[in-house]
Recover the amino acids of this structure.
């Protein structure tokens, strides 16, 4: 089915290119100029050792991370996270929320602050491809659990949206859900055809007495929607309640009319080569493959992996590593994906998928079944047997109660975000940890990714000067630039008479350049690896804080 574009998809300039965690150890057109979105509160000034503060970028206060493991051989690329805290207390957030790119040393590369008070969040921040060009995408809104609401923790509040930025850090479009649904936090996937697949949710009133609940109850109904990003038209909508019975839920229905049942908690979509979809539902402990919903007669459940036993469609049986009820090798899982085929093709009828096994926690099973782990599973449609091929646990063990992801990297490694625990890690195929990072305080990131990225900001480099005991230091930064290798400092008696005085290798987000050049006017040039000038800053002077 299709519908008009309405106001759910906006192009500022067309076609430019849940829960508290368990602690470890506990069971074309002219581009618009870039600007930071306004913060909800006044500028955050933090002296915390866990927060970055930059004289050249006084409104940016991203968190600092602690690199625990950093071995040779990690995949090239940068780390993509979106820190927030599952708390209604603003002081539990370290730094600001927002999409954050960092290098493997923990230095910020680009940061877009959304809030200093944890009232807005970003999730699922990563690199994707749209019309052959790299883009940044993320969900943006407010999550239940960070503000008072009757919605279950982790549910998106109305008004949420997906945003797409190009490699100049310009917003090129905003996408919202259709038909009275809300854009869900868990998935926004751009297909090779230029469509967007995402999860949307809506609260539905229902008689829940057949499931042990109340007559005047309500549940969160998830739906897969696909939108053509060129036209804004809805390609299809596939509703889970219309295909999977509520009785499949592991979590008991609430016995109070004031509670909303999170009966499915769909949290992942992946697309197969013929348009078939792989879906994950946390609260049924199951994965489902459905036939291509965009074609006539499509949208049928083809098979189910894990969850409660049933006979409505074929169901895989786990052959090994059983850890919980219902013959399950995983529980409360997230981020199911088809694994890329590398090397020797799999035998006919076999498929490999990855998922993040939280193994924790909710009623009626409030304790972990096992430590969390990344899993690679083999599914053999010839025998309807599934088996664990590889597992990637953390050392020490982690017990996240929600969220998390497993990303297959181009070099064959697996990158794992540990959801409601503050870690993200990279592992070799044999399970060796090459990289591990811990975020500060109660900060977490729903998913974490490691992607190649070339950022080309249209802004000028930012500069500042300090003078202490007669020693002048010029500082330079350029939010989002991935090509700056060094800074050239120029000085002179007037803006028209500047000449080079030094070249300093770039060091992290902000580089300090001590100088004895009297100035009083200074300028910096961002240089690439070959010494070519990428862009020049405004001229600044020690005579006045204003730029010249």
């Amino acid at each position: 089915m299709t519908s008009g574009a309405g106001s759910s998809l906006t192009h500022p300039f067309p076609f430019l290119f849940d829960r508290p965690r368990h602690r470890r150890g506990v069971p074309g057109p002219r581009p618009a100029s870039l600007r930071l979105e306004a913060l909800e509160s006044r500028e955050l000034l933090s002296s915390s050792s866990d927060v970055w503060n930059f004289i050249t970028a006084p409104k940016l206060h991203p968190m600092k991370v602690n690199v625990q493991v950093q071995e040779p051989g990690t995949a090239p690329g940068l780390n993509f996270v979106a820190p927030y805290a599952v708390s209604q207390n603003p002081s539990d957030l370290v730094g600001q929320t927002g999409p954050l790119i960092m290098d493997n040393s923990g230095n910020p590369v680009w940061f877009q602050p959304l809030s200093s008070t944890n009232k807005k969040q970003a999730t699922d921040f990563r690199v994707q491809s749209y019309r052959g060009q790299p883009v940044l995408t993320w969900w943006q809104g407010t999550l239940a659990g960070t503000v008072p609401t009757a919605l279950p923790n982790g549910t998106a509040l109305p008004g949420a949206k997906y945003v797409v930025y190009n490699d100049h850090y310009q917003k090129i479009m905003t996408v919202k859900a259709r038909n009275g649904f809300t854009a869900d936090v868990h998935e926004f996937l751009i297909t090779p055809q230029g469509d967007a697949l995402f999860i949307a949710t809506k609260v539905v009133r229902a008689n829940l007495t057949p499931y042990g609940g109340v007559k005047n109850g309500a549940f969160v109904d998830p739906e897969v929607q696909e939108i053509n990003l060129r036209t804004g038209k809805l390609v299809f909508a596939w509703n889970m309640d219309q295909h999977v019975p509520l009785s499949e839920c592991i979590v008991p229905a609430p016995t109070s009319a004031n509670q909303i049942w999170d009966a499915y908690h769909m949290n992942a979509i992946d697309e197969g080569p013929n348009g078939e979809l792989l879906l994950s539902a946390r609260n049924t402990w199951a994965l489902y493959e459905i036939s291509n919903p965009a074609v006539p007669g499509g949208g049928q459940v083809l098979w189910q992996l894990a969850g409660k036993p049933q006979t409505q469609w074929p169901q895989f049986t786990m052959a090994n590593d059983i850890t919980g009820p219902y013959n399950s090798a995983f529980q409360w899982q997230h981020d199911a994906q088809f694994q890329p085929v590398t090397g020797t093709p799999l035998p006919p009828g076999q498929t490999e998928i990855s998922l993040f096994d939280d193994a924790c926690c909710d009623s009626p099973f409030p304790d972990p079944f096992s430590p969390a782990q990344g899993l690679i599973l083999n599914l053999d449609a010839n025998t309807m047997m599934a088996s664990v091929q590889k597992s990637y646990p953390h050392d020490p063990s982690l017990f996240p109660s929600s969220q998390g992801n497993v990303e297959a990297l181009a070099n064959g490694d697996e990158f794992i975000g540990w959801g409601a625990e503050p870690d993200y890690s990279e592992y070799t195929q044999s399970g060796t940890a090459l990289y591990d990072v811990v975020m500060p305080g109660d900060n977490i990131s729903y998913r974490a990714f490691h992607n190649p990225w070339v950022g080309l900001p249209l802004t000028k480099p930012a500069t500042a000067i300090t003078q202490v005991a007669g020693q002048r230091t010029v500082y330079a930064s350029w939010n989002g630039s991935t090509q700056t290798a060094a800074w050239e400092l120029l000085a002179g008696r007037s803006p028209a008479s500047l000449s080079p005085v030094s070249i300093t290798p770039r060091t992290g987000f902000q580089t300090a350049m001590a100088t004895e050049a009297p100035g009083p006017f200074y300028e910096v040039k961002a240089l690439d690896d070959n010494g070519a000038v990428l862009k020049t800053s405004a001229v600044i002077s020690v005579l006045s804080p204003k730029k010249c």
